[in-house]
Specification:
Layout (H helix, E strand, L loop, with lengths): L1 E4 L12 E3 L2 H8 L5 E3 L2 H32 L3 E5 L7 E6 L1 H12 L14 E3 L1 E9 L2 E10 L1
Parallel strand pairs: 4-8
Antiparallel strand pairs: 1-2, 1-3, 5-6, 7-8
Length: about 150
């Protein structure tokens, strides 16, 4: 019997998925607990429409990621901080402060997790920082000045 899962059922199927299960499993477990419903022509059409809609959303999100990466790639962010005479910063620049500087200067809101900074920046200079958005990568130039 073909059923349309209304919620995730471990080991059987995920919400919105059409799957063929044994009739006893459907009648005795899935249908009474309203975890799934029988597949009708209408539900099959709705399933196809939902699949197309999800695919379109995935494609649109990928296009947005590509656009964002192309816009931010090659940009430069300048940060002014206090440092000693040798160029060592009194306070390191971490992912959070870098994300805030990117937002203030470039008007792009980034999560700190998207910034590929391994350890805080502690010296004055120019750095190339990788930015990871989805499966795309951009390099951002960061200039630390006193």
């Amino acid at each position: 019997m073909e059923v349309l899962f209304l919620s995730d059922v471990p080991g059987s199927g995920h919400r919105g998925e059409i799957k063929d299960v044994t009739e006893g499993y459907a009648r005795n477990f899935l249908l009474p607990r309203r975890l799934a419903t029988r597949v009708t022509d209408q539900s099959r059409r709705q399933y196809q429409l939902d699949l197309q809609k999800r695919q379109h959303q995935i494609e649109r999100a990928a296009e947005d990621e590509r656009t964002f990466v192309s816009n931010i790639s090659g940009s430069t962010v300048q940060i002014r901080v206090k440092a000693n005479d040798q160029g060592r910063l009194f306070q390191g620049i971490d992912r959070h402060s870098l994300a805030e500087a990117i937002y203030q200067q470039l008007k792009y809101r980034l999560k700190p997790d998207h910034i590929g900074l391994q350890k805080p920046i502690k010296e004055v200079g120019t750095y190339s920082i990788p930015i990871f958005i989805g499966s795309h990568q951009a390099n951002l130039s960061v200039v630390i000045q006193t």
